[in-house]
Amino acid sequence: MSTFIRRYAKYINEKAISYRSVAFDFCKVKRGKEDGTLRTMPTDQLLKTLPVLQSQVDALLDFDCTANELTNGVINSGFMLLFRDLIRLFACYNDGIINLLEKYFEMNKKQARDALDCYKKFLIRMDRVAEFLKVAE
């Protein structure tokens, strides 16, 4: 159990670091097309915020357990807490990427390169999210 508790603690630590960096909790921000925080964010701020969100998603996905390990109550509880956060983080991450792609052709060359890098990382993380959700199933 200690391995999974350490992994969960790593996620909580990363969540605190991201809160310190961007001054809001990604799990509690408004989401959606009209008034979503990441959907209406300006390009400069978005390019600084997305890497923070990416590192928080990475820390969450590092929990990495199998369905057989979820028989333990402590591991199962930690997994369920992470699952709820993952759904919210994924919604924010998706809003941010949509906003980034909408503004892509208005960016300068450096911003466009950074945006493309963020999008490539997004695609890799989505495969890992799919694996996490298969375990949750």
Automatic annotation (TrEMBL):
Domain ENTH intervals: 1-26
GO molecular function, one term: phosphatidylinositol-4,5-bisphosphate binding
Signal peptide: none
GO BP: clathrin coat assembly; clathrin-dependent endocytosis; synaptic vesicle budding from presynaptic endocytic zone membrane
Sequence intervals crossing the membrane: none
GO terms for cellular component: clathrin-coated pit; clathrin-coated vesicle; extrinsic component of presynaptic endocytic zone membrane; synaptic vesicle
InterPro entries xref list: ANTH_dom (IPR011417), ANTH_dom_sf (IPR014712), AP180-like (IPR045192), ENTH (IPR013809), ENTH_VHS (IPR008942)
Superkingdom of the source species: Eukaryota
Similarity-based family: Belongs to the PICALM/SNAP91 family.
Protein name: Phosphatidylinositol-binding clathrin assembly protein LAP-like
Gene source species: Homarus americanus
Lineage: Eukaryota, Metazoa, Ecdysozoa, Arthropoda, Crustacea
